[in-house]
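Hello,

Our lab assistant flagged a job as stuck in the queue for most of the afternoon. It eventually completed. Since we weren't sure the result was trustworthy after the delay, we are filing this so someone can double-check. Below is the sequence as submitted and the structure that was eventually returned. Let us know if re-running is recommended.
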Amino acid sequence: MSEQDEVPSEDRRKYEFRKVIEELKDYEGSGTQLVTIYIPPERQISDVVAHVTQEHSEASNIKSKQTRTAVQDALTSIKDRLRYYDTFPPDNGMVIFSGAVDSGGGRTDMVTEVLESPPQPIESFRYHCDSAFLTEPLEEMLGDKGLYGLIVLDRREANVGWLKGKRVEPVKSAESLVPGKQRKGGQSAQRFARLRLEAIDNFYQEVAGMADDLFVAKRHELDGILVGGPSPTKDEFLDGDYLHHELRDKVLGKFDVSYTDESGLSDLVDAGQAALAEADLMDDKSDMEEFFEELNGGELATYGFEQTRQNLIMGSVDRLLVSEDLREDVVVYECPNGHEEYETVDRRNSSPDHTCSECGEDAEEVEREDAIDHLMEIADQRGTDTHFISTDFEKGEQLLTAFGGYAGILRYSTGV
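-- returned structure --
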C-alpha cells in the first residue's frame, strides 16, 4: 500500500475529518482535563497563545493535583503546536484537541490532535475543558451540505439570502412602493387598480433582480431555491416568470411563511425541510439508480471490495460508490509461500485467522489500513471520483447491506 497523496481530494478530506472525530468521541478523561479550542480564521495566533497562557496560569488553582497537572500539560502541548503557525490559522480556521485520555488499567495517554481548515469557517473562538472533547460543532459541519437560495416576499418587503449547510445568510432586502388597497381621493378605482398592479409588477421585478444578481453566478453550484411568503404573493411571483430562466428550474417549492423580514428566511428553511432533505439525496439516488440499471441490464457495474478494487487498479471505474456508514479496515495477509491476499474486517475487531486460498497454508497479517482510504487512494491515482452514499433511502441502505458498502460505475466493461 502506497502513501497517501500530499493534497487529498475533497471526499477524502471529509472522510478523514469524520474518522478523526469518531476517534476523538471515544476518548474519555478521568476528570475535566480534555481541552478543545476552536480558532476562527481571523483570530491572530498571538491572541490564542496569550489566551492559552492565561488558562495555564488559572489552572494552577485547580484543587485536584491530577486534574491540574493534566490540564496544564494539555495547554503546554497546545502552545507547542501553535508555534508552527504564523500570524493567522489556515483557511476556515482550525480546532485543537489535547488531553490525557484513559487507556485502561489506570493509565493515561497524552493525545494532541490538530484539525485544519474544516469544511466550513469556524465562526467564533471557543475554549472548552471537560471530561470529553467538544466535537459537536465539527459534526454539524460534516453533516451540512448543499447551497440553496432563499427568497421571502410579500407586497411590502422582500429578503433574499443563502442557506449554506445549516447557516442562513441574509444578503439583500427591499421595501416596496405598492400602495394599500384603499385608493386616495380623486383617483378612479380603475386608475388606482392599474397603478397598484404596475407597482406590484415593478416590485416583483426588483426582487427577481436581487435574486438574479445573487444566484445566477452560482447557478452551477446551487442545489435549489426555496420561495416563501403569503398567498397569493409567492404564487404570483413564480407564475409570472420573473426569475432568470436558469433559476426557475432550480425552484424546489413554494412555502407559506408569516414573516418576510430576515427572520422569514429561517422560517422558510423550517417550512422547506422535506424538500431540502429530498434535494440532499438527489445525487445519491441518481448514482444508485444508475448502478442498479447497469447491474440488472448492463455491463458497467461492479460491487464488493475485491472486485471494485481490481477494477480501480485497472482504471476502469468512473465513479466509486462507498456507503457513508461503512467502517472497515483492509488487512493484507501473507502465507509462507509468498502469496498475498486482501480481506476486509470490522475496524473494531482483530483480524481473524486466515488460510491462503492458493496453497491452503496459514497466512499472517502483515499490514492493515482503513479500507476506504485504500480505495480512495487508488481512485485518486486513476482519476476516479468518489461518492459517499447515504443510507437514508432504500437503495442507499442496500449498498451497505447487500453489496458490502462498495460499488462502482465503470467506464467500460472489464469482465471482473
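-- support follow-up --
The delay was a queue issue, not a problem with the job. The result is valid. The chain has three domains: 10-143, 147-280, 283-410. The radius of gyration is 28 Å.
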